[in-house]
Amino acid sequence: MDPGALKPVLAGLALPPVSLLLLALLGLVLAWCNRKKSGLTLATVSVLLLALLSCHGTAVWLARTALPQFAPLDLAELKPRQVQAIVILGGDVLPVAPEYGYSQPAAATAARLRYGAWLARQSGLPLAFTGGLGWAAHSTQTESEAEVAARVLRQDYGLALRWRESQSRDTAGNARLMAPLLRQSGVQRIALVTHAWHMPRAVLAFEQAGLAVTPAPLGYVLPAQGELLEWLPSAQGLQASRQVLREWLALAVGRWLPA
Questions:
Q1: Domain co-membership, 111 together with 182
Q2: Which pLDDT tens digit goes with each residue over 122-175?
Q3: In terms of domains, do 211 and 249 share one?
Q4: Between the CA of residue 16 and those of 53, 63, 238, what are the distances in Å?
């Protein structure tokens, strides 16, 4: 087994909700083993933390404080002397979409494709896409993210990819495999399209691959509902908090285990 295949499993265990549910279970076991006070305290704290992380307001606070910040792209930065290509990062696919009869981009990938297409039309710059089969891909996935992206861009936006990288399995691989393809065409300066919470790690990876990066973030974690609803636990709130914590953890691990 490739060690990389363990990455999504380890991340799943380290991040909420699994990590906090395991701590709550440990607390109940301790309480059952005659350590009632400490066990119940651990279980209670774990459940309260899970509830807090399920609030979208918590996700907004984490996004602002736990990760480096990138401002929205100013279109004036998309000048030929500053940027030579727009690179879109994959964010998973839906391997089976019965309503279409073939694979479709997952929500994150679809949002990145839409923004990348819009930037390409505004600037006239060529498009690149990087993404293969991620480490967490389901066994039913037969098409790479890049293949799905190329089809969607052609059918829905009338645009073609000039560069397509379909072997990478994570962000480090995106940068490592995409950079040589771009350099073969003389491209050294890119605008990088990915979600704002993913941008810190993505910029670091592509800069380490030798490219000059202009961030083009999208999908900021911002207040989206009334103040009361922002602080009511929800699946969406937990997902947003989990995404931010995943990136924070990946950056922390990367400092200890550089690529």
A1: yes
A2: 999 999 999 999 999 999 999 999 999 999 999 999 999 999 999 999 999 999
A3: no
A4: 8, 16, 8
- C-alpha 255/C-alpha 52 separation (Å) is 28
Task: Assess whether pLDDT exceeds 70 at residue 40.
Answer: yes
Q: Which two tokens stand for residue 245?
A: 């914590």
pLDDT tens for residues 91-116? 999 999 999 999 999 999 999 999 99
Q: Cβ distance 127 to 153 under 8 Å?
A: yes
Residue 105 lies in a domain: yes
User: Are 140 and 212 found together in one domain?
Assistant: yes
Closest CA to 72 of 251, 228, 193, 253: 193
> For the chain, what is the domain count?
2
Question: Would residue 223 count as lying in a domain?
Answer: no
Residue 72 zone, left/alpha/beta (φ > 0; ψ -120 to 50; rest)? beta
* Residue 84 Ramachandran class (φ > 0 left, ψ -120 to 50 alpha, else beta): alpha
% of the chain exceeding 90 in pLDDT: 93
Q: Are both 19 and 54 inside the same structural domain?
A: yes
| Domain-located, residue 149 | yes
Q: Which of 167, 192, 144 is nearest to 4 (CA)?
A: 167
